[in-house]
Every structure is written in structure tokens, then in C-alpha cells.
Specification:
The chain has 312 residues and is of the alpha+beta class. The protein has eight helices and 13 strands.
């Protein structure tokens, strides 16, 4: 859903504010919400209230159409616009990194120096030990790659998995089959790979991931890790399989995003991901009196992953 501002007379677009409609549950109640994904203003028209006017009009229109909440990750380039538009900070989301292949990271950073060459073997051994330490105790769970599989055929099982998760998470973006297929399965650029985990023929988890190459560096990203509440065994199996694929693709490290104190953060930390010093501010704009931000500030009550947003 897009709002634009145009220069009077010329009709040249000078500003844009857009959002994606999503289904959420807040306090386990279905809620229609909007994910704010983009805000821009022409450099010649900045500091003239363009984004404030656009966002205000969009929020009023969305509220009139019974959307109850806007969620987003306003960055520092917004300045004071997020406050002017009613955004309220709930809690931070932070990057976490898994050191998959330190030897590859050393090679990229050093440019192939002699010192880096000497450290290649110990660096790779350290990475292997790190992986082994965080795979210990994993059980044998059959994990199938979704590529080539009819994902819509998994719709009932995925919806059942969401019902299990929804019974535990107080707040979440609705992870129905429809949403998962739109976000990952039917995504037109084919950016994401998917793995499904099944135990005794029953689907019990999903992981969505991708790789990104930049400046001769390959980085893996875990976009979504979706299991039944507290199922660390399935999470470990899915992460282990994804890490194998990242390794084959030549990645040096793997990144994910989670809120400290949330179940997803605990999953990642338990399986070898460690937090970095950078991240985002998760913020909301209530569009209805039925939404109380004071009841939404506990990250332990949320099921959120980086794939819920437009970061990767």
C-alpha cells in the first residue's frame, strides 16, 4: 500500500511512504496490521514536512480501513520523523553471527598475507570445533530440502505447526502457510532456500535462508527458523543442515537477527550464534485504542525473526 507526494503543477513525485498489509496476533487476538517498509523524500524537498504529511495521511487511511497497528524498524536517517509519526520503541533487535569458516574471513580481510596463510589451519580447526561443540547431542531427524517439492502440499502441516506456535507466543506475525509461501516459497526472485524437518513422517520445523556475495565475501543469512515451542532438537537439526549448505556455498560467517530475551534469541545463542553490537529498533504505531504498546514491550512474549521484516 503506497502513498506518494507530488509537486503541485508538475506532478513530479517528491516523496513516498509504503507499507505491506500483514496478519498478526496480539495477546493471541487476530489483528490486521501494516509493516512499514519504505519512506523516501526528494533531497530538494527534505525538512519541509513531506514525510510527516505522507505518513500521517497513510496512517489515518489505514486506521479507517480497520488496520490496528503499524510495525517497522525506523533507522537513524528518519531523524525525528518516527517520533512525529507516532512510532514507539518496544525493544531492540540485534545481529547475531555464527563463525562458520574463520579461515575464509581471514583470507578476505588480510588479502592473502603470509601471517593469514599461517593461521589458515588453526582458524579452520577452531571453526570445526565450534560447530562440533554446538552439534553435540543432536538426534537423527530426516531433513528434506523443499526445492522441487510441492510446497502447497505442505499447507495443512504448516498451518498445524503455526497453531502450535501461536498457542505459545503471545504476539507474532501470523505464520500461516499463505504467509510462508508468499514470503519464501513463491518469492519471485528465488532468493531463499527452504528446509523442512520431519520426524516419523510428521513436519515439525522449517528454516528459510539465503546467501549474499559482496566484495568477494559470501555471507549466509538465516531468515526464519520456525519450530514448535521449545523444540531445540528440531532447531539444531535445521541449523546444522543450513550451515552445511552455507559451507558448500563458500560462506565465511552466518548472520541472523533476534530480540535479546526472546525464544528465537535463545535458540540461536544455544546453537553457537553470538551477538554483535549492531541492530535495529523495533517500533510500532497504534492505530486503534484496542492496542496498548505498554502490553507489547516484553520480547519474551514475541515470535519474531529477521524474515518478518525487509532486512534480508
Amino acid at each position: 500500500m503506497v502513498w506518494v507526494a507530488a509537486e503541485a503543477g508538475s506532478e513530479i513525485i517528491i516523496g513516498h511512504y509504503g507499507g505491506i498489509p500483514i496478519d498478526m496476533t496480539l495477546r493471541r487476538r487476530p489483528v490486521a496490521a501494516v509493516h512499514s517498509v519504505e519512506a523516501m523524500a526528494d533531497p530538494d524537498y527534505r525538512r519541509q514536512g513531506v514525510l510527516t504529511a505522507l505518513g500521517t495521511q497513510a496512517h489515518e487511511d489505514w486506521a479507517n480501513h480497520r488496520y490496528e497497528l503499524v510495525i517497522g524498524l525506523p533507522n537513524d536517517k528518519w531523524g525525528t520523523r518516527n517520533t512525529a509519526l507516532g512510532y514507539i520503541h518496544l525493544f531492540p533487535l540485534v545481529w547475531l553471527r555464527f563463525p562458520l569458516r574463520l579461515d575464509r574471513v581471514l583470507t578476505r580481510r588480510s588479502g592473502g598475507s603470509l601471517a593469514a596463510e599461517m593461521l589458515q589451519v588453526p582458524a579452520r580447526m577452531a571453526s570445526r570445533l565450534w560447530r562440533f561443540a554446538h552439534r553435540a547431542g543432536s538426534s537423527r531427524i530426516t531433513t528434506n530440502v523443499v526445492d522441487g517439492i510441492d510446497l502447497p502440499a505442505q499447507a495443512p502441516a504448516l498451518d498445524n505447526l503455526w497453531r502450535l506456535a501461536a498457542s505459545d507466543a503471545l504476539h507474532a506475525i501470523t505464520r500461516s502457510f499463505e504467509w510462508l509461501n508468499w514470503r519464501y516459497g513463491a518469492e519471485p526472485s528465488g532468493t531463499y532456500s527452504l528446509l523442512l524437518s520431519n520426524r516419523a513422517g510428521k513436519l515439525d520445523g522449517l528454516i528459510a535462508y539465503r546467501t549474499l556475495e559482496s566484495d568477494e565475501r559470501i555471507t549466509g543469512f538465516v531468515a526464519d527458523l520456525f519450530t514448535a515451542p521449545g523444540d531445540m532438537v528440531t532447531a539444531r537439526s535445521l541449523l546444522a543442515a543450513a550451515l552445511d549448505h552455507f559451507d558448500e556455498a563458500g560462506a565465511g560467517s552466518v548472520l541472523a537477527v533476534a530480540a535479546p530475551g526472546s525464544p528465537h534469541y535463545a535458540q540461536l545463542a544455544k546453537h553457537g550464534f553470538h551477538p554483535l553490537q549492531t541492530g535495529f529498533s523495533f517500533e510500532v504505531v497504534p492505530l486503534s485504542a484496542s492496542v496498548d504498546p505498554a502490553q507489547l514491550g516484553n520480547p519474551a512474549a514475541w515470535h519474531l525473526t529477521v524474515g518478518d521484516f525487509d532486512i534480508v
